[in-house]
């Protein structure tokens, strides 16, 4: 059974949601969690002005209060050449999904921690390559793939899918069953609030499967 997690490495509420997703993955190993970077602000030319720094700090304080996630408010990444462009880190996640799909969440968490807690510039391809190497993708292999047209296109497709499905913000958890999209969580949710939602979804799948089995009694579903 699949669940889709629409996120962005440079979305602070997604960083706050990361421990919840980690617990979800640990508690429900039967769920195939598909991580898609939905595109928070790809291609942005927003510099870290004093006004924008205050904007970020306000949201970071709120995320910290709700999630307990640590933020380094010194923002060492905020050089004069830095822009809040979320496309590179999103593309890095696509690269990781290509080589080590079972470790994509681990990579996402590492990138988030590097940005928010350590102040690393995750719009920089070299820094992203160094982080990928920590997970198991060789730097040169990462960089070659990162700059390929194939990966750029796949990254764009993730942004387009997010818009097509009507994702209103990040983080978002949703399911797609028989062409029907069901949003399970939109925005930050503590685990205790999310768990009963997941349980209800799993129960509905079990009931649907049971009804399908019953409708096939007497060989009516045979060929």
UniProtKB/TrEMBL annotation:
<dbReference type="InterPro" id="IPR036249">
    <property type="entry name" value="Thioredoxin-like_sf"/>
</dbReference>
<feature type="domain" description="DSBA-like thioredoxin">
    <location>
        <begin position="6"/>
        <end position="195"/>
    </location>
</feature>
<protein>
    <submittedName>
        <fullName>DsbA family protein</fullName>
    </submittedName>
</protein>
<dbReference type="Pfam" id="PF01323">
    <property type="entry name" value="DSBA"/>
</dbReference>
<dbReference type="InterPro" id="IPR001853">
    <property type="entry name" value="DSBA-like_thioredoxin_dom"/>
</dbReference>
